[in-house]
Amino acid sequence: MRVVRFLTFLTVLINSSLQNEPVDGGWTKWSIMSDSECSKHCGGGKQKFVRTCTNPKPQNNGANCEGPSEKEEDCNTHTCEKEIEESPWEEWSACSRTCGLGTRERFRKCVHAKEGEFKCEKKEDVSYEMRNCTDWEPFVAYKCPDPCDKTSDEYKDVEKVRHCPDRAKCTNESTEMGPQRKCKCVMGYVLDAEEWKCKAPKPPEPTPRPIPTMDPVEKTVSIVVTRTASTVLLIMVGLTLALFLLLRIFTIDRIIQMNMEIALESAHLLLLIPPSISEEEPMFCTMISVGLHFFFTACFMFMMLESLHVYSMVAFVVPRNGMLNRLQNTILGWGVSMFIILISVCFFLDQYGAEYHCWLEMHFPLVYLQYGPIITLCILDFLLLEAAGAANYKPLKVVDMKQLMSAKIHQRSNLIIMPLILSSWIIGILSDYEQNLGLYSVYSILNTIIGVCIFVFHSLGNQEVRAKLKKFFKCCVR
Fold first, then answer.
1. What is the pLDDT of residue 386?
2. Is the distance from CB of 319 to CB of 407 less than 8 angstroms?
3. How many other C-beta atoms lie within 10 A of the C-beta of residue 21?
4. Are residues 79 and 42 in contact, defined by beta-carbon separation less than 8 angstroms?
5. Ramachandran region of residue 25, left (φ > 0), alpha (ψ -120 to 50) or beta?
6. How far, CA to CA in Å, does 160 sit from each of 102, 157, 187, 236?
7. Which helix or strand (DSSP H or E) is residue 134 part of?
């Protein structure tokens, strides 16, 4: 009994001495962290490992473990190609379109993916295939309608088989691979693929007209001839104006004629400007062309007013002085001409003048505003003159017989002067436009005749001039 107690006492004494001695800590073996997996399934990833300082734990102020408690190591270093090559392909997906050409696709799963959880979606892992497919059955109308059938919306999202636009004929050119159609516009329309419309074709660009040329000798002759004729006209018309100014004759019919003569004189003064100005000063050439249009229009406008005056006298509409007074005739003649020119200038200013002359053009839309009003005025002029002498009108009780006689003379003289000026105007434009020596010659002859006719008919047609000439011959010629 005493021996047992001694041994127990000795054991307790030894344990007590051992507990007071320090014990250094020791590392456990490396192990994978419970929530850590390899960062990649293939191609080399990283995985975390841990260890603890519990083998043994440090005791009685023993030293702790030295070194890291965590580390990362490479994992799944095998290549992905091998992994994917060994992976089975999934089934092909359904075709993306029920009618027409569509696509199918399929993937391969990674070896380390759990079955059915995910596909290889990472760029370095994915293996993907796509191919065309078709469920197209062109001869089964109830399943896939005709691509030319506008009542069907089956192909509304397919650009190649969109419905044809209006004014287009659709032709079904489908094959076993899918629906196809061809749209062809009819009635001369052209298909605009961008806007998907049938549009009227653009008018063809006109072939530029070659600039006509003349032999230098012919050109010199034409300039001399036309300027000489214009000079003769200017002299004869100038003499007519001077004669009436010296005699101080300003009757209503004379005021109309005077305005017509001023307009004609101004137009031919512009024609004396050298043709080289069109090359040196294009803007000045345009102004000359506008001026020619204006003064010739005014000339024909005053001839029409003179015919109106003649009609009012010969048809016994009024007993004397015509239907309009001096001011009304002047304002109406210049005002209507200015209105026509303003419209032309507002819309077609760039069409005045030409590359080689300053006359009016012939191949631009402006030609309608050149010829239209003037031809209309000439037609009205002719109708009034014809109406004035077409029937026997009942005379008024009081009529100025001298004015009536002048009106009858002007009626006949205008039937000569008006066609001459119209012919001269048209041939003048054509001669410069065509650069034709023959036309220049005819133009020059007409201008000479016009100058003589205006001087003779306007002078002898006025009752006061006739009275003064009669008085002169009685007094001075025996």
1. 83
2. no
3. 10
4. yes
5. beta
6. 13, 9, 23, 78
7. strand 128-134
Six token digits for residue 83: 């992994």
CA atoms within 13 A on the CB side of 39: 8
The answer to whether 111 and 90 have CB atoms below 8 angstroms apart is no
pLDDT along the chain (478 residues), means of 10: 62 57 78 74 77 80 81 75 61 75 74 46 59 65 69 64 80 74 85 84 73 80 85 90 86 89 91 70 82 92 90 82 88 93 87 74 78 90 82 72 81 89 89 84 90 87 74 60
Q: Is the peptide bond before 203 cis (omega within 30 degrees of 0)?
A: no
CA atoms within 13 A on the CB side of 34: 0
- Read off the DSSP letter of residue 168: E
- For 6, 184, 273, the CA distances from 170, given in Å and listed in that order, are 120, 7, 64
Residues 26 and 55: beta-carbon distance below 8 Å: yes
pLDDT for 26: 82
| pLDDT value at residue 263 | 93
CA 179 – CA 137 distance, rounded (Å): 9
Q: In the structure encoding, which two tokens stand for residue 459, read together?
A: 């002078």
What are the structure tokens assigned to 351, written together?
Answer: 């069409």
Model-wide pTM > 0.90: no
User: CB neighbours of 243 closer than 8 A, spacing ≥ 6?
Assistant: 459, 465
According to the 3-state scheme, what is the secondary structure of 195-232? CCEEECCCCCCCCCCCCCCCCHHHHHHHHHHHHHHHHH
67 three-class SS: coil
As given in the structure block, the two tokens for residue 265 are 């004189």
Rounded Cα gap, residues 17 and 317, in angstroms: 160
Place of tokens 């201008």: 447
> Alpha-carbon distance 236 to 456, whole Å?
9
Reference 288, options 273, 298, 303; nearest CA is 273
